[in-house]
Amino acid sequence: MSVAEIGTMETRGRNRAAFTLIELLIVIAIIGMLAGMLLTGVQMAKQKAREVVAKTEVSQLEIALKKYYQEYQRWPTIAGLSPEDMENEPVVIVKSFAAILQGDNDSDNNNPKRLPFMDFKTVDKIGDPANPWGKKYYCKFDTDYDNQIRKGSGKDPPKDQTRRPVIVWTQTVKGKLIASWQ
After folding, report:
1. I need a labelling partner for 124 at 20 to 30 A (CA). Which of 14, 29, 43, 94 fits?
2. pLDDT above 60 for 7
3. What percent of the chain clears pLDDT 90, i.e. is strictly above it?
4. Is 172:133 a contact under the CB 8 Å cutoff?
5. Cβ(94)–Cβ(81) under 8 Å?
6. Alpha carbons within 13 A on the beta-carbon side of 88
7. Is the separation of the CB atoms in 86 and 143 below 8 Å?
C-alpha cells in the first residue's frame, strides 16, 4: 500500500464520520420550514377558538336580553335612547348596560331585582364588555313588538330584515361579522 492510498483512505473515513456544512444547513432549513408551518397552524387554531368564544358570547348575550325581557316585560332603558333608536340604530353594550345584565347596582333601576342575566368575562380598558379581540358588542331591539328587526342602514347589520325580538353582533379584527342571527 502506498502513501497516497493511505491518505485517500483517511480522507474518506473523515468525510463519512461527520456531516458537511451543506447537509447541516439543509437540515436547519427543513426544520425552519416545518416550524413555520406549525406556527401558522397554531395561529389559525387560535383565531378559530376566538371566533367560537365570540359566537358563544353573542348567543349568551342574546339569551340574557331575552331573559331580561321575560322577567320585566320590557327592554332595558338606555339613557338618551328612544325606543325607535334602539330598533333602528345599533346599541353599544357599555359598562352601564352590562351592569344591568350582571345584576349590579345601576343608577336607572333597570334591574330592581338585581338578577344576574349574564357575566361578562372580558372587558376593555374602560370597563366595557369586549370580545376576544377587544372590540365592542352591539344589539338592536324589536321595540314596536312586531318580532322584526329592520334592515340596517349603511354598514349596520342586519343586511335584511330579521324576524327576531333582539339581535346581537360583534366583529373580528379583520371585520368578519359574528352575529346571533347567523
Report:
1. 43
2. no
3. 40
4. yes
5. no
6. 7
7. yes
Say if residues 151 and 159 touch (Cβ distance below 8 Å).
yes
Per-residue exposure over 89-115, b if at least 16 CB sit within 10 Å of its own CB, e if not: ebbebbebbbbbbbeeebeeebbeeee
Look up the pTM and report it: 0.77
pLDDT in tens, 114-141: 899 999 888 899 989 999 999 999 999 8
Establish how many alpha carbons lie within 13 A of residue 104's alpha carbon, considering only the half-sphere containing its beta carbon: 12
Residue 162, CB half-sphere, CA atoms under 13 Å: how many?
22
The backbone torsions φ and ψ at residue 59, rounded to the nearest 5 degrees and listed phi first, read -65, -45
